[in-house]
Amino acid sequence: MDIGNIFEEWDFSGTVPLPHRVLLMGCIGIFAWGSNIHILSHLRVDVSNLLFSSPPLFGIYTNHPRHARDRNVNKSTPLSAPLSALYRSIYTLGVAFLVMVLVNMWMYKWVVAGSEAGGQRNTGGSTVPTGKEMKGGMGLTGNPRAGIMVPIFGYLTVLIMIFVPFNILFKKERYRFLRSMRKALFSGFKSEVTFADVILADILTSFARVFGDLAVSLCLMFLDRDGTNPDACYGSIVVPIMTSIPYLIRLRQCLSEYIESNYTTGRHLMNALKYSSAFPVIIVSAMQKSSKAASLKGLQYDGYFTDNSLFKLWLFFVALNSLYSFYWDIYHDWNLIQTYSVSSSPGTPPNGAIPMSDLSKQANGGSGASNSATGSSHSSPLVNGGGVKQQRLGMRSYLHYEYPSFYVMAVVLDFLLRTTWILKLVSNIQIEEYEGGVFTMECLEVLRRWIWVLFRMESEMVKRAGYIDADAAPFSHSGVGGEAPMVGDGASNSDMIMMEEWQK
Fold first, then answer.
1. Which of 206, 289, 349, 501 is deepest in the core (most CB within 10 A)?
2. Are 440 and 14 in contact (CB under 8 A)?
3. Cα–chain-centroid distance for residue 308?
4. Are 242 and 215 in contact (CB under 8 A)?
5. Spatial contact of 338 and 396, defined as CB atoms under 8 Å apart
6. What is the pLDDT of residues 40-57, one digit of tens each?
7. pLDDT digits over 257-271, tens only?
8. How many other CB atoms sit within 10 Å of the CB of residue 236?
9. Which residues contact 487 (CB under 8 A, 6 or more apart)?
10. Are the CB atoms for 472 and 332 separated by under 8 Å?
11. Are 79 and 122 in contact (CB under 8 A)?
12. Is the pTM of this model over 0.85?
């Protein structure tokens, strides 16, 4: 049995109706984000400083078995108590929403089963509604109002749980999310873009399909209850627009960053081009669905392109978007591939950044820091002194996570999950033709984003410490975006003493 037959025989829409699938994906996103913060805190990534601009924990960049060999340091100690409270509150919110969704699903099936006279009989003689009859409560067959009010009630409950003004259900976390969403949706081109804004918008792009599903769900619940008019909500237009919203948010952020740099940093324009490459994929996919819907009705598709031409266009644009995005993940977001300017003679790290060799000596109680301060010679990928410079392309030398194999596995998984569209090229694995296949693809994209967040946070933390892209973005005492100081240029003796005390 091939994969296509498995999804064809699995009546997923009868098990998890579309409106509940949207809510379920939201719950999965909450748990994914909570586990991101949980794991990052145990990997000693200072999430509170990266996202919320809280004071950094000095020594965070050297307190790792790979870089600091002090046996007295407890590497398993969580980063900070506030982070522990944060991810526990996110887990609790996720459980609350998940329970609500499951209860609403049970109520929906109970109402629909009670409203249907037909069905299959089990060995005991009682009636068991089939998958198709389960859909009847949403208006596809039978009484269109029998089950329609149940998911509407579920969506209203979700809105109440999110917007309730009382100090319950972790109001601080809920309102922080709402403020971030308001900023993402309604900010102008000249608004400031923080690292937290970028993380949220990138996560939203992984839920682009869910945005489209939300548009269809709202249409089924309020406008097309009998399911007989697919154009009742102008789905061929509204769904692509809803799917494009996360990419439009991220595109606006890239342009805002370019404006903020006084139109000098071309990297932001290249990043904007990456998100723009998603729009042709969305448009061509919508045209393919319209063509298929017309053929199922026995009508002639009046579009300019033939089905074969649409497929070739889709293949070109989706390959371009996937490969460009993969390159950006590895080279820019994770900064795993670096071009080093290595001098033939010893020199001084740029802007006073502490080289890796000196950090190791310092962690062992050596005199590396003092040697760095006096400009003595050392071997480091951050060397930027005199002599003849050589350009070298290779993997980033400073890796916060202990095992380099983690980074290799992340790159492989990111490529595989970026190119799941290849399954469409296999005739017997058309899993996106089925609701269960669509849900599976959405979950795989959330998994890819979950991995991406782990390494994006690590990359940002290391960059703020001064070990990434030192020539292009010199490390300063104020860090990135004017945040609290890190170990590096301008670090005072008291800061260094605080770091050493923290390590002890």
1. 349
2. no
3. 33
4. yes
5. yes
6. 999 989 898 899 876 665
7. 999 999 999 999 999
8. 14
9. 58, 59, 61, 62, 354, 465, 466, 495, 496, 499
10. no
11. no
12. no
Q: Could you give the 3-state DSSP secondary structure of residue 125?
A: coil
Tell me whether strands 120-121 and 389-395 are parallel, antiparallel or unpaired. unpaired
Q: 278 is written with which tokens?
A: 């998603």
- Comparing CA positions, the residue from 41, 18, 53, 17 lying closest to residue 90 is 41
Q: Both tokens of residue 302?
A: 């009046």
| Sign of CA pseudo-dihedral 129, 436, 213, 155 | positive
Both structure tokens of 79: 């980063």
What CA–CA distance (Å, rounded) separates 159 from 193?
27
Residue reference for tokens 């139109």: 263
In contact, 386 and 343? CB cutoff 8 Å: yes
* Listed residue (474, 479, 473, 448) closest to 461, CA to CA: 479
CA 171 from chain centre, in angstroms, equals 23
d(CA 497, CA 503): 10
φ, ψ dihedrals at 486, nearest 5° = -115, 180
For residue 306, give the H/E element and its range: none
**Structure-token match 């000596």, residue found:** 361
| Dihedral of alpha carbons 274, 280, 283, 285, sign | negative
